[in-house]
Design a protein that fits this description.
By secondary structure, the protein is mainly β. It has 4 domains: 172 residues, no CATH class; 83 residues, Immunoglobulin-like (Sandwich), CATH 2.60.40.10; 141 residues; 129 residues, no CATH class. It is 11% helix and 42% strand. The strands form 6 sheets. A 10-stranded mixed sheet has the order 19-18-27-26-25-23-24-22-21-20, with no helix packed on it. Strands 29-28-37-36-35-33-34-32-31-30 form a 10-stranded mixed sheet, with no helix packed on it. The longest helix has 23 residues. It is elongated.
Length: 572
């Protein structure tokens, strides 16, 4: 409970003390109904309870509440408004409220007769307070400005702030009541006959805390399935494999249900054809993930997966490089749905509990705690090998509170691979504007001011200085003027084809499922780079390169200055 004393109250407390404050308040306002000073009476319903009364069940049911290490009588609504975290999470019902102090106090008498009795006590004023005193329980309730206070056995004899008029407006007088805002579906992972739905809470919870989320997935009017729960994620079951569903999400509080989220589609899959996907969400402050979100699948990342008994190992080689191990308790020889907690770092874990470890990019945990939740797993009936799996994990490094969370789906028969270069080549890409030779081999380099590799020079190499090429199916290397440049297609694309190869990084440290690029020489090279290349023409006969026309653009160290070039080569 928040305890706050106004300056006037603080002065009274210093000069007359807390014991005399009740008498001072009453004497200044004429006391009870007969005009005499009323002395606070012992509450017939004792507000302070034995510590043993604050059992988890009593607190959950609202019968008791822990305040300043004391156990006091409470109710769910008063407890919610008395707790600082509830006040901090609440969204005011309206910027201004017409709830009056008398409406509030009338409601409090009806809602909490064991605190404020007998009812219908006179409203009194002692600036800046408008208040009522209840002689049967010894409690006061008052309003100063827009803030609501209580005093007496209810608050352990302390002046306690329990909220504002706006906080109580909806429950006390149905003023400014609001349902939650629309939540947001952030990701849906297809499963065998199910959908694993992750979501974010709405910006506003409305006039009261959100009690439930509900996600519905529909395919026409004859197949609608729903799942409910208090928080993300939710798993919608009973869906048809291979059938496309549209899913929406709503949030509910005491005032009603929100507008639905934007829809997101999902197509559940048979276990053997389940696509392989990895999603990582790193909290701010998480050392491993650096506070970022990562998405991987077999179209953009090389994903290695191996399963042996109760252990799964994963390697990710893409724009980032990761390694991971997940081990269930020794008593669990296979992967079955369930949540496994109390895990520590593999391979130094307790075998009876299990372990995990996700690291890479030069970062790893010395110690960690975490959990694994297996959502679905299937095994091949004839070989006994794992056919598909869908699971999530949470990892905390070095005893911290920032987490790395991941969801992983894998299918043994997922044959997805890189899509190959983009065709046709986009017309917006750079092309040389200079007049170039109509025939013969050449390399044209155009370097921006500030480009480290080309030193801001524009050069045309022809004749005896024309480039020499080395072709190896999926890669091409050009040698010219003391430079060498390498152009590598995405893995699985061989030989090189006409098309646009975007989002490249430095060869040979590139993402193999995107391809790579590197141009350097004359004592200069990039540590890191971004770029692209495009093949406009290429002829290959019996695995031998006969002709090629390509363009490229390269930026070193994340800079804006570029080296651009075009190469034309025909076998002599």
């Amino acid at each position: 409970m928040i305890h706050r004393k106004t300056p006037r109250l603080a002065r009274l407390l210093r000069h007359v003390g807390l014991a005399a404050l009740c008498t001072a308040l009453l004497a200044a306002c004429g006391g009870g109904q007969d005009g005499t000073a009323a002395e606070p009476m012992a509450s017939p319903v004792q507000a302070v309870l034995a510590p043993s009364a604050c059992t988890p069940q009593a607190v959950a049911e609202g019968a008791a509440q822990q305040i300043d290490q004391r156990c006091v009588r409470a109710s769910p609504l008063m407890r919610a408004h008395a707790r600082p975290q509830a006040l901090a999470a609440a969204t005011p019902a309206a910027a201004a409220t017409t709830l009056t102090p008398d409406q509030l106090m009338d409601w409090a008498e009806r809602q909490y007769p064991h605190f404020f009795a007998p009812s219908a006590q006179p409203t009194q004023i002692l600036a800046p307070y408008t208040y009522r005193y209840y002689p049967a329980t010894g409690n006061y309730i008052g309003v100063a400005g827009t803030e609501v206070y209580v005093l007496g056995p209810l608050s352990q004899g302390q002046i306690a702030l329990v909220g504002t008029l706006a906080d109580f407006a909806c429950v006390a007088a149905n003023i400014g009541c609001a349902v939650p805002g629309a939540p947001t579906i952030t990701a849906i992972t297809p499963q065998d006959g199910a959908a694993y739905v992750e979501f974010a809470a709405p910006a506003s919870s409305g006039s009261s805390a959100i009690s439930q989320y509900s996600v519905s997935c529909a395919s026409g009017f004859d197949s609608i399935r729903t799942a409910t729960g208090p928080a993300s994620p939710l798993v919608v079951t009973g869906l048809g494999n291979g059938r496309k569903y549209s899913c929406i999400l709503t949030a509910t509080n005491q005032q009603g249900t929100s507008a639905p989220s934007a829809a997101m589609t999902v197509t559940p899959v048979l276990p053997s054809s389940q696509p392989t996907t990895i999603r990582l969400v790193s909290d701010s402050g998480d050392y491993i993930g650096g506070g970022r979100t990562y998405l991987y699948n077999r179209t953009n990342t090389q994903i290695g997966f191996s399963a042996s008994g109760n252990r799964i190992s994963i390697q990710v080689n893409g724009d980032e490089w990761w390694y991971a191990d997940f081990v269930l308790p020794a008593s669990q020889p296979t992967w079955v749905p369930g949540t496994y907690t109390g895990l520590t770092r593999y391979p130094f874990h307790d075998a009876a509990k299990g372990g995990l470890d996700w690291g890479g990019e030069g970062r790893g945990c010395n110690t960690l705690k975490g959990s694994i939740t297996v959502l679905a797993a299937t095994y091949n009936g004839s070989t006994g090998e794992l056919d598909s799996i869908n699971f999530s994990f949470v990892q905390y490094c070095e005893g911290g509170s920032a987490a790395l969370r991941g969801t992983i789906a894998w299918g043994a028969n997922d044959t997805t691979g890189p899509p190959g270069p983009v065709v046709p080549v986009p017309t917006t890409l750079w092309k040389p504007t200079a007049t170039l030779p109509a025939s013969g081999n050449y390399a044209y380099l155009q370097s921006d001011s500030g480009d480290y590799i080309g030193q801001g020079q524009t050069t045309l190499y022809t004749g005896s200085q024309a480039p020499q090429l080395n072709f190896n199916g999926s890669s091409l290397t050009a040698y010219v003027g003391g430079y060498d440049g390498t152009f590598v297609a995405m893995q699985g694309t061989s030989p090189l084809k006409v098309g646009y190869y975007p989002d490249l990084s430095r060869y040979p440290f590139h993402n193999p499922f995107k391809g790579g690029l590197s141009w350097g020489g004359n004592g200069r090279g990039c540590n890191t780079l971004t770029g692209w290349f495009a093949i406009d023409e290429i002829t290959i006969v019996d695995n031998q390169l006969q002709h090629v026309l390509l363009r490229f653009e390269q930026h070193c160290e994340g800079g804006t200055a570029a080296l651009r070039g075009q190469i034309r080569w025909t076998k002599p």
